[in-house]
Predict the structure.
Amino acid sequence: MTQRTETGLYFDAERRELQARDREMIPTRLVLAMAGLALASLALVSFAVLTERPAVGAPHAAAQVAERQMILSGNGVAARAATPDGRVLMDAENGGFIAVVTSGLDRARVKARVEDNPPVTLTRFANGRLRLSDPATGWSTELTSFGAGNALAWTALFEK
């Protein structure tokens, strides 16, 4: 190591810069806070499991009002919905939320190794909830959880 004999302004600035660089990159308090957050989460979940607390985020049970079978296809942007007999319900170059859900459905089918494109079931419940389910994979999603505007796109498929 070379010893510096300079005492000028430049040397002092360089020394301060190296001291700042050599400090810990993640502050100890932040690490402790993150560990505390993880332990608090674990304690809350453990309490809920041990006391058998009911799931409050689950949708409320309601009577089924309508059901429609359809075949969904798309490429991530475009979306197409058709009845099992081939009547087109929707064909859009920009499918919006329907295209997003179709991508999720496609991913579930890849994971379950479903080769073809069997029909899915769109269900409307008495309380206004909409659910899309895939009998081939067991996959389902609550469509009204994504907002009223997104659910409206699916509601329109019942009217066609």
Remarks:
- The two ends are 81 Å apart (CA to CA).
